[in-house]
Design goal:
Blueprint: H1 3-20, E1 29-30, H2 39-49, E2 55-61, H3 69-81, E3 84-89, H4 97-105, H5 112-115, H6 117-123, E4 126-129, E5 144-146, E6 156-159, H7 166-182, E7 189-193, H8 200-203, H9 206-229, E8 234-235, H10 237-242, H11 265-277
Parallel strand pairs: 2-3, 2-4, 4-7, 7-8
Antiparallel strand pairs: 1-3, 5-6
Helix pairs in contact: 1-11, 3-11, 4-7, 7-9
Length: 285
């Protein structure tokens, strides 16, 4: 994406934010009456997704990189489909795929939202999921790298080849398989997002930045591989935040809160818009 196109998108999103003027709170229910809706488009959407409920539960599962996205995406879903949306925002700081899997399999994470995921998934018409690879280690070829993560030290890459993510891919696929089992026979809008990195440009020195960029691209290749193999549409948040060549600074683009890490309303809207553009075709496990 060239700089002029990026500027146009950001301006468009800023207009949306100025017009919406609404805050983001957990547990909100959004109705489709916030503006004019093209009824023909709504009818087409309802026919294509074949979800009969008048209120859809949106279950959001991610680490803090998804801060605030669920509320905005929930508004988009309500507007686009003419339904009410109950947002269940279950982002957890530093959430890993392994921890999500633990919640689904053993319910002993000591986190209430994770330990009741099976029940929440059973009722959710829309599910968005992301977890990082920190607890998904390939014992035969463990990764050894640090590239601009929040709270991290100096950037380095000792080992970041694709094989180091083999357990991560397996864990993500098992998460999808469990969701499919829980939702068997029920049309479900299941979506994934890949990993943004607001610290890649500003935290990694120039001599290691290219190597770290390749490492983060490999990481996201693993996220995409798992989603693609399971037929789950995935939003390219990394491209939107860090640029197509992954050399742009999301902080300079105005996507983060004052901590220079977590999404602000604009940054969250960028991710929510990507999910919106994936459409609403369901998976019927």
């Amino acid at each position: 994406m060239n700089s002029s196109a990026s500027t146009a998108i950001i301006r468009g999103l800023l207009v949306f934010l100025l017009l919406s003027g609404s805050g983001c709170n957990k547990g909100n229910v959004y109705s489709p009456d916030s503006g004019e809706i093209n009824t023909e488009e709504v009818q087409a959407n309802e026919e294509s997704v074949n979800i009969q409920e008048e209120t859809w539960d949106l279950l959001w599962i991610s680490d803090s990189s998804g801060w605030g996205v669920a509320e905005i995406y929930g508004q988009f879903i309500a507007e686009d489909n003419g339904v009410e949306v109950n947002v269940i925002d279950s982002w957890v700081s530093n959430l890993s795929a392994g921890k999500i899997l633990q919640g689904l399999k053993t319910q002993d994470t000591h986190n209430a939202s994770l330990d009741k995921l099976r029940d929440t998934i059973a009722e959710a018409e829309v599910i968005v999921i992301y977890g990082n690879p920190e607890s998904s280690v390939n014992p035969e070829n463990p990764g050894d790298w640090l590239c601009g993560q929040p709270g991290g030290g100096k950037c380095y890459v000792n080992n970041c080849d694709m094989d180091t993510f083999s357990q991560y891919i397996a864990d993500l696929k098992e998460i999808y398989e469990i969701i499919f089992t829980i939702r068997e026979g029920k049309p479900t809008i299941i979506r994934a997002i890949d990993a943004i990195n607001p610290g890649l440009v500003r935290s990694c020195d120039s001599e290691i930045r290219n190597t770290c960029t390749v490492c983060w691209e490999t990481y996201n290749e693993a996220v995409h591989q798992a989603a693609d193999e399971m037929g789950v549409p995935i939003a390219n948040a990394f491209d939107a935040w860090n640029g197509i060549d992954h050399n742009e600074d999301p902080v300079e683009k105005g996507f983060t809160q004052e901590d220079n890490i977590h999404p602000n309303e604009l940054g969250a809207t960028v991710i929510a818009q990507l999910l919106r553009e994936l459409g609403y075709d369901p998976i019927v496990p």
